[in-house]
């Protein structure tokens, strides 16, 4: 299952790189203007739909990380939680799955 770790690793990198490729230029143009960010996020119904979907997904993911991480004993669970809060679900989920695979491999080899 070595390829699964590589798969999650690549998705972790893409999950932080791609969203920030859009966000960093916006910050460069507008600064960290939270009011403008929220205004643009709610610009139309489809934007609002997407943001609410991501928000609910982040809450579910953090719950899953805490529950599953404690259940099987994954170390450094705080990393994907912080990653989810700072970069998003596209980073936090593959990072947690990568950490989980690494943990499962260690448990299998004991």
Structural summary, described in words:
- Helices cover 85% and strands 0% of the residues.
- With 110 residues, the protein is mainly alpha-helical.
- The protein is elongated.
Give the tags.
elongated; 110 residues
Number of helices: 5
Share of residues in helices = over 70%
Biggest pleated-sheet summary: none
Quaternary organization: single chain
Mean pLDDT: 93
Low-pLDDT runs: none
Silhouette: elongated
SSE arrangement:
Blueprint: H1 2-30, H2 34-41, H3 45-72, H4 78-86, H5 89-108
The gist of it:
The protein has five helices and no strands. The protein is mainly α and 110 residues long.
């Amino acid at each position: 299952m070595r390829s699964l770790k590589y798969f999650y690793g690549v998705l972790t990198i893409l999950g932080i790189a791609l969203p920030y490729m859009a966000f960093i230029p916006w910050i460069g143009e507008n600064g960290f203007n939270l009011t403008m960010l929220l205004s643009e996020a709610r610009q139309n119904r489809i934007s609002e739909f997407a943001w609410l979907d991501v928000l609910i997904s982040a809450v579910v993911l953090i719950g899953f990380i805490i529950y599953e991480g404690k259940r099987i004993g994954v170390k450094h669970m705080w990393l994907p939680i912080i990653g989810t809060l700072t970069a998003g679900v596209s980073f936090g989920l593959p990072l947690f799955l990568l950490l989980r695979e690494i943990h499962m491999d260690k448990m299998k080899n004991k």
